[in-house]
Amino acid sequence: MLLFSDNSPLEEFEGAKTTKAASVAYRGMLEGLVPPAGCSVLVISVMEVLTEYFERQFGIYLGDDFCDLGDQLKGVPLTNAACESMFSAVDWSYRRQPNMNIRKRAAHTAIIKNRTFRYLMSLSEEERQEILKKAVSNRSAIESLERRKSAEYATELIKAMEAKESERARNRKKLQNKKDKLLRDIQTVGIWKSVAELEAVVASLKHTKAMEAVKLNIRFHKLHQKGKDCDEGLFKFQKAGHKYTLAELIAHLSELIEMNGEDDDTSVAEDSDLEGISDVEGDE
């Protein structure tokens, strides 16, 4: 097990081991610990996949000659601490200056993480002034590019917002059409407000017409619930491939009618509650 041996090439990575006091103390605590029972089996089970990953991702085969790749791998960090630190800097920036645009935030983060000002202060006065002079000379071009990019971004953002609003308008119209159709169809069979009325009307209809009438009333009750706590299964026409019989649908509708009780308010729900009224599972 190469990566778990005493001669792992990872030991040779530049800056592989942090010298922070907490890290040194943690490594000291780990040294000399006896590996838990069964860990060798676990290592064997993952090494094949790990080797395949390194070969596919980096073109490196973790064979016996891996130790000879020291020069090629020199400087590779042992952890992703640098990446996590970058995320932390960006997160801090968003909390401190939430309205900064993306390009300025990227430049600001790069300056912080690259310690640009520390580097500038390490230069001689002449070298520092030369760099600052070049930066100032490019200011107009950079500002012009920034304005153009901002305008392009604003245009694309407006287009995206308009497209989203158009989609919402189409959905609202679609839902309204469903509502209007349901209200037209329900008038042909009536809205049953009691179980007795339901049973009386169904008894006078043929099976196909009765199924259609019961389903219409179930759909209407789905609109009529207005956020009431209710078993969503009562609005479905089939479950796990089993299509409910007329008797089962009548039982569901009876429960919905009894749930509404003496509430005579037959107004329908808002448009936001309409979605899915004709998407009942097994709808025919």
UniProtKB/TrEMBL annotation:
PANTHER family: OLIGORIBONUCLEASE, MITOCHONDRIAL, PTHR11046:SF25. This is Dimer_Tnp_hAT domain-containing protein. It comes from the Eukaryota. Residues 262-284 are annotated as: Disordered. One of its GO terms (molecular function) is 3'-5'-RNA exonuclease activity. Keywords: Hydrolase, Nuclease.
